[in-house]
Amino acid sequence: MANQTELALALRWERLALRLPAYRAWRRMAGWYKRLLRWEFWPPYVFYPPVVAYIIFLGFRFRNWTLFTAANPAIPAAGFVGESKYEILRQLRGVPSAIPAHILLVHSETGERLRQAEAFLQENQLSFPVVLKPDAGQRGLGVAIIRSSRQLREYLEKAPFPVILQEYVAGKEFGIFYYRYPGESRGHILSITEKRMPVLAGDGRRTVEDLILRDDRAVCMADFYLRQNSKRLQYVPAVGEQVQLVEIGAHCRGAIFLDGNFAITPALEKAMQQIADGFERFYFGRFDVRVPSIADLMAGRNLKVIELNGVTSEATHIYDPKLCLFDAYRTLFRQWRIAFEIGRRNHYRGANPSSLVDLLKRIRDYRQLAQQYPQ
Fold it and tell me: Do residues 353 and 210 both lie within one domain?
């Protein structure tokens, strides 16, 4: 009886401590400190300078600083920034069953867009959820999973830019980085990233806010997770109840990236080759795919390509916490060297790299457009 009383008293004091502003502030400070120690959370201006320096070195070595933009002649600037995701999906004709149903909503009037969306859902026999995302996007910005007609209307009302409406594909998500040198009959898989959505387990006592602040990894992105879950922060999950914090498979939007290179098999390489072969003059980029299971991935079956990113995509398995900073830079250096080598071969075949002025203009235009994206 005494032990039960002591336990109840301890739990009461713990709940009180969790409610104190000083405790929450201390945990956020701990999260900030952990971000400094874990390089996967470093801001771009800290992490990328060595990569930029290496790209400049490659520019001197290959005598053309923008040669990498010839790596994919079929994509403007090889997919550097601002390319149309819809046009890329449209050109992936190798295995039609591997591409989810999708439509580009370009009309500026919300009512007309809603009519197009409803006709698309009916024609393809789709129901909610569906995915909405900007036609020109990066790092998951503006991507939303829509679960009702109301959410569909609210998104479109805030989106005065071309939007892709896409079938929602359930299952596990992976990033498969593929490349092929011009003149070769088959390509290679450089990297596979297993993308996991962070999940916290309830204990019947702590709120969602408490669980986020107490978790060793979640606290590193506490501000983001708290915003994403603002409507249920005071909800107390039951014992063992799973609380998924995010839904979008982007590292900067809270997803966990793990090294999935164990899944590279001849069967998967063959399947990815068939998909890539359908896209003429494509040589370098990352396929983001969803599959029912890891077994399906390794067997190269039931693949659904939800997106294909070009030359500035990354071999994102580097963000696995088990890998060191040296491993990450070594992979990225190799990736950029391959991009320059492929660009040089394509240049010899008549593909012209983009100019530095064009790249700067693309960056400017994309930043202006991205300011309108829903958060």
Answer: no
Q: What is the DSSP string of 43-67?
A: -HHHHSHHHHHHHHHHHHHHT-TTG
Residues 33 and 169: their CA atoms lie apart, in Å, by: 37
Structure tokens that stand for 79 in this block: 């997919």
Residue 157 and residue 56 share a domain: no
Q: Which residue has the tokens 């400017």?
A: 364
List Cβ neighbours of 71 (8 Å cut-off, separation of 6 or more): 78, 283, 284, 310, 311, 339, 342, 343, 346
Q: What is the pTM of this model?
A: 0.92
3-state helix, strand, coil split of the chain in percent (to 5) is 50, 15, 35
* Phi and psi torsions of 290, nearest 5°: -125, 140
Q: Does residue 223 fall inside a structural domain?
A: yes
Per-residue pLDDT tens digits for 139-186? 888 899 999 999 999 999 999 899 999 999 999 999 999 999 999 999
The Cβ-side half-sphere exposure at 108, using a 13 Å CA radius, reads 0
- Evaluate whether residue 375 is within a structural domain: no
- 3-state SS class at 20: coil
In a shared domain, residues 182 and 317: yes
CA nearest 285: which of 143, 85, 141, 131?
85
How many Cα atoms occupy the beta-carbon half-sphere of 333 within 13 Å? 11
Domain range holding 134?
Answer: 101-168
Percentage of residues in the chain with pLDDT exceeding 70?
94
Question: What domain count does the chain have?
Answer: 3
